[in-house]
């Protein structure tokens, strides 16, 4: 209790006009909500997102504020997305992986990420059930979105992850490691040996083999 009081006091001191900031925060929320509604030309936008995602209204407002900071126009195209993503991986080339990621977030396939696209993706990645997360990952690996993961698609994703991690991190394994990984995963996943991995095969394998999820780097580099 004392520690909390002290912390609160320090916070108040360091922030100075704490109560004023809170008041402004409330005003901002109302403004954001109005803005969100205006941007989407739909007054029910926030209600709909609140119903469809696993975020509260308050969380959605915070997310929207960050989104607007990064991207004042309210829409992120692939180049913006790559720039934002590259900041997190300065040691490597994240552009190819960012391209795949962009397509996984762009669920309506219109070539740009709206606030809704982001919220729905983050909702799955942060709050989704294991099935929802695996479905999302499957969709990421299924580059041409035809419902199957081929060995080539898996290799493309793995290579893009290695590129992003930096060419100089593991110079000796850079060329061979993705291929070896993919051969191993593919053998495990393609249970009926027909050359493609279906969503059922993908889910079964991932759920019964923890090491696969870890070594596929699922979710590690996404957020
Ligand atoms: Ca979109
Ligand atoms: Ca495919
Ligand atoms: Ca198969």
From TrEMBL:
The keyword Calcium applies. One of its GO terms (biological process) is regulation of potassium ion transmembrane transport. Its main location: membrane. The keyword Transmembrane helix does not apply. GO terms for cellular component: voltage-gated potassium channel complex. Pfam families: EF-hand_7, EF-hand_8. It is found in: Cell membrane. GO terms for molecular function: calcium ion binding; potassium channel regulator activity. Residues 17-27 have a biased composition (Basic and acidic residues). Residues 1-37 are annotated as: Disordered. It comes from the Eukaryota. InterPro entries: EF-hand-dom_pair, EF_Hand_1_Ca_BS, EF_hand_dom, Recoverin. Residues 93-128, 129-164, 177-212 form the EF-hand domain. Keywords: Calcium, Cell membrane, Ion channel, Ion transport, Membrane, Metal-binding, Repeat, Transport, Voltage-gated channel. Belongs to the recoverin family. This is Kv channel-interacting protein 4-like isoform X6. It comes from Petromyzon marinus. The gene is LOC116940471.
């Amino acid at each position: 209790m004392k520690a909390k009081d002290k912390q609160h006091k320090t916070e108040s001191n360091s922030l100075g006009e704490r109560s004023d900031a809170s008041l402004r925060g409330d005003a901002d929320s109302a403004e954001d909500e109005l803005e969100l509604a205006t941007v989407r030309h739909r007054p029910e936008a926030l209600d709909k997102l609140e119903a469809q995602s696993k975020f509260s209204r308050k969380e959605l407002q915070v997310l929207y504020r960050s989104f607007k900071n990064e991207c004042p126009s309210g829409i992120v195209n692939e180049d913006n997305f790559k720039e934002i993503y590259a900041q997190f991986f300065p040691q490597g080339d994240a552009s190819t992986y960012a391209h795949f990621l962009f397509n996984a977030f762009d669920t309506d396939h219109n070539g740009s990420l709206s606030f809704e696209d982001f919220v729905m993706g983050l909702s799955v990645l942060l709050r989704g059930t294991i099935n929802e997360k695996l479905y999302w990952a499957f969709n990421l690996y299924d580059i041409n979105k035809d419902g199957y993961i081929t060995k080539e698609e898996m290799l493309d994703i793995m290579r893009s992850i290695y590129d992003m991690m930096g060419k100089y991190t593991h110079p000796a394994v850079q060329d061979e490691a993705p291929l070896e990984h993919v051969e191993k995963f593919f053998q495990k996943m393609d249970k009926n040996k027909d050359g493609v991995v279906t969503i059922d095969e993908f889910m079964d394998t991932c759920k019964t083999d923890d090491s696969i999820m870890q070594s596929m780097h699922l979710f590690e580099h996404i957020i």
